[in-house]
Write a structure and sequence with these properties.
The chain is of the alpha+beta class. The chain has 5 helices and 8 strands. The protein has an 8-stranded mixed β-sheet, sandwiched between helices. The longest helix is centred in the middle third of the chain and has 15 residues. The C terminus is likely disordered.
């Protein structure tokens, strides 16, 4: 497995983030949308970069308001899925949110996204709501969103402690 390090999202990452998002979601966000999200008050992002080439393998965008954090999106390049990058990004987001004063983190995930649901379940997220027909597949069929939440005060501690020093898969 190739090693990855977390870093704060930089403006130069946006093009590759848009490419990864388009490969990950039916309703992809383009570079303009990603920049708008990052410009929102309380919004931030972390990226997972390959230690070998310092290329982007995935990213997470989140927004912190008061004591809550919302995970806006988490996307991993298809060729890096299953290598621990998603876990690294989720744990980095949880740690950063907690250090910033958030006591809970919530997100929405498509009901039929089994890989993402398993990732969130493993980190202690629990369903707290449902949005019927929130997503639409290219075929036009609706898919419910499951709202999930985790208590950051009781779910930690996490590794990595900081995005600048976090790594996974150093073998």
């Amino acid at each position: 497995m190739t090693g990855h390090t977390l870093a704060l999202v930089r403006d130069g990452d946006v093009g590759e983030m848009a490419r990864i998002h388009a490969l990950s979601f039916d309703d992809a966000w383009n570079g303009i949308m990603l920049r708008r999200i990052l410009a929102m008050p309380g919004a931030s992002g972390i990226s997972a970069k390959s230690d070998l080439r310092w290329t982007l393998s995935g990213f997470a965008l989140f927004r912190i308001a008061a004591d809550e954090c919302e995970l806006l999106t988490l996307a991993v390049a298809p060729e890096r899925r299953g290598s621990g990058v998603g876990s690294l990004l989720l744990e980095g987001t949880m740690a950063r949110a907690h250090r910033s004063g958030a006591s809970s983190l919530f997100l929405e995930v498509a009901e039929d996204n089994g890989a993402a649901r398993r990732l969130y379940d493993r980190r202690g997220f629990r369903p707290v709501g449902r949005r019927p027909g929130y997503y639409s597949r290219p075929s036009g069929s609706p898919v419910d969103a499951v709202t999930m939440s985790v208590d950051l005060d009781t779910a930690g501690p996490w590794e990595p402690a900081s995005p600048e020093t976090a790594a996974v898969g150093r073998d």
